[in-house]
Design a protein that fits this description.
- The chain has helices at residues 6-26, 46-61, 72-86, 97-109, 122-129, 145-148, 216-228, 230-237, 247-256, 267-275, 307-317, 320-330, 362-366, 368-379, and strands at residues 63-68, 89-94, 117-120, 135-136, 168-169, 173-174, 178-181, 205-208, 242-244, 261-263, 280-283, 289-292, 297-301, 356-358.
- With 384 residues, the chain is an alpha/beta fold.
- It has 2 domains: 46-172 and 294-350, D-Maltodextrin-Binding Protein, domain 2, CATH 3.40.190; 174-292 and 368-382, Periplasmic binding protein-like II (D-Maltodextrin-Binding Protein, domain 2, 3-Layer(aba) Sandwich), CATH 3.40.190.
- Strands 1, 2, 3, 4, 5 and 13 form a 6-stranded mixed beta sheet that branches. The chain has a 5-stranded mixed beta sheet with strand order 9-8-10-7-11.
- The longest helix is centred in the N-terminal third of the chain and has 21 residues, at 6-26.
- The chain is elongated.
- The termini are far apart.
- 39% of the residues are buried.
Length: 384
C-alpha cells in the first residue's frame, strides 16, 4: 500500500476549513476601510499642472524686477527665501512710495518696460500709478487655491482696493493715533482723541505732517475729520502742535520727553523705540482708529518683462509661507487670518470690540487730494 505524504493528507482538511470560514465571513459585514492607492492614472489637478509649468517658465526667465517701498529687512528676507525655494532672483529697487510710482510712470512714458512688480502703499498705487495706465489685471494671475480662497482673508473676501482688481492689499495693521511718554502722561489722562484738546497739552504735542499724501498724518486727518468734524480739527490746530516730516525724529522727541504727546506718529518707529525700552506707549482712543497696509500692497506692471516669474512671485508672496516671512520681516500683521501673529506687539493686532475703518479703499484714497487741501487750510499756518 502506497503511503501519501502528510502534507497531502492535510490539503483537503485545510480547504474544507478555509472554505467554511470564507462562507461564514461572507455572512458578517466587514468594516469599511477607505484606502487611497495611487495607481499612476489619477488626474493631476489643472491648477497643479499649470503651477508646475509656471515654475519651469519662471526659472527660464530667472528674475523678478520689483520696485518697492519697503525696507532692508523685507528685502533680505524675500530675496533669500524666494531664491532658495525657486532658484529665481529678485532684483529690487527701493524708495518711498511716491518715488517708485514716479519711476515706473516715467519709464513707461519713455517706452521702457523694466519693472515686473510694484510693492508700495495704497495711495501711491491708487492715486498715481493706476491712472497712468501702468498696472495690469492682477486677479487672473492668482493661481494657488490657498491664495484664491476668500475665506483665508479678512472679511472673507480678496482684499483688492479697486473695482478692477489690480491692487491687492496683503497687510493690515492697527494704527495708534496717539503716542505718549509714560513718564510724563498719567494713565487715563488720554482715552479719547478729544482729550488732546486739554489746555495743558498746548505746545506739547508733535505730529506727522497731515498736509502731504502718504503717511500717518493725512490718514489721521482723513479718519478723524470724518469722525469728529472740522471744528475738532480747527480746535486741535489752536493747540499749536509741532508738525514735522521727520518721522523718526518725532518719535525720538516723544521718547526723550521733549513733547510728551504725539499724534499720528509713525507706527514703525514707535515699534522700534518700544522694542528698545523707551518710555512710550501707543494709544487707540475710544473712538477707534484706522487700518493701514503700509508697504503692504502689490500690483503687477501692465507690460511686465518677466511675466511668469512675476506671477510665481506674487502667488508665493500671498501664500501662508510668503506672508509669514514678510510679516516677520516688517513686523506687521498679514491680512491672511491663517498667518501667526505671536511675533507682533498686541497693539498692532485687531482686537474685538474696537471700531476699525480702512482708509485704503479706492474711494477713500481718491479723496485724499481733497483732504490734503483741507488739511493745508487748517494746519498750513503751523508749518515752518
Amino acid at each position: 500500500m502506497k503511503t501519501l505524504p502528510v502534507a497531502t493528507l492535510f490539503i483537503p482538511l485545510f480547504l474544507a476549513l478555509t472554505g467554511c470560514a470564507t462562507r461564514e465571513a461572507a455572512q458578517v459585514p466587514l468594516p469599511t476601510i477607505e484606502m487611497k492607492v495611487k495607481t499612476g492614472t489619477e488626474a493631476t489637478p489643472a491648477w497643479q499642472e499649470e503651477w508646475e509649468q509656471l515654475v519651469r517658465e519662471a526659472k527660464k526667465e530667472g528674475t523678478v524686477v520689483i520696485y518697492a517701498a519697503f525696507g532692508s529687512p523685507e528685502r533680505t528676507a524675500l530675496v533669500m527665501a524666494f531664491k532658495q525655494k525657486y532658484g529665481v532672483d529678485l532684483d529690487i529697487t527701493q524708495g518711498r512710495g511716491g518715488e517708485v510710482a514716479e519711476k515706473i510712470i516715467r519709464e513707461n512714458r519713455a517706452g521702457l518696460n523694466l519693472a515686473d512688480v510694484i510693492i508700495a502703499g495704497g495711495s501711491s498705487l491708487t492715486i498715481n500709478t493706476k491712472p497712468a495706465g501702468v498696472l495690469g489685471p492682477l486677479e487672473p494671475l492668482l493661481l494657488l487655491p490657498e491664495v484664491k480662497d476668500p475665506q483665508v482673508w479678512w472679511d472673507k473676501k480678496l482684499p483688492f482696493l479697486d473695482k478692477e482688481n489690480t491692487i491687492f492689499e496683503f497687510l493690515g495693521y492697527v494704527n495708534a493715533p496717539i503716542t505718549i511718554n509714560v513718564d510724563m502722561v498719567k494713565a487715563g489722562d488720554i482715552v479719547s482723541m478729544r482729550d488732546v484738546l486739554n489746555p495743558g497739552w498746548k505746545d506739547k504735542i508733535v505730529m506727522d505732517d497731515p498736509t502731504i499724501v502718504g503717511g500717518a498724518g493725512i490718514n489721521w486727518f482723513s479718519r478723524f475729520s470724518e469722525l469728529l468734524g472740522y471744528d475738532f480739527m480747527r480746535a486741535f490746530a489752536r493747540m499749536e502742535p509741532v508738525i514735522t516730516r521727520d518721522r523718526r525724529l518725532a518719535v525720538e522727541w516723544i521718547a526723550r520727553g521733549k513733547y510728551p504727546v504725539g499724534v499720528a506718529a509713525s507706527d514703525g518707529f514707535v515699534a522700534e523705540f518700544v522694542a528698545l525700552g523707551a518710555p512710550i506707549a501707543p494709544i487707540v482712543p475710544k473712538e477707534g482708529t484706522w487700518i493701514s497696509a503700509g508697504a503692504g500692497v502689490v500690483s503687477i506692471a501692465a507690460k511686465a518683462p518677466h511675466r511668469n516669474a512675476a506671477k510665481l512671485f506674487i502667488n508665493w508672496l500671498l501664500s501662508p509661507e510668503g506672508q509669514t516671512i514678510y510679516s516677520k520681516a516688517q513686523g506687521t500683521p498679514s491680512n491672511r487670518v491663517d498667518v501667526a501673529t505671536d511675533h507682533l506687539p498686541p497693539y498692532k493686532i485687531r482686537q474685538a470690540g474696537v471700531n476699525y475703518v480702512s482708509t485704503n479703499d479706492e474711494e477713500s484714497l481718491l479723496a485724499l487730494p481733497q483732504k490734503q487741501k483741507e488739511a493745508r487750510e487748517i494746519f498750513g499756518p503751523l508749518l515752518k
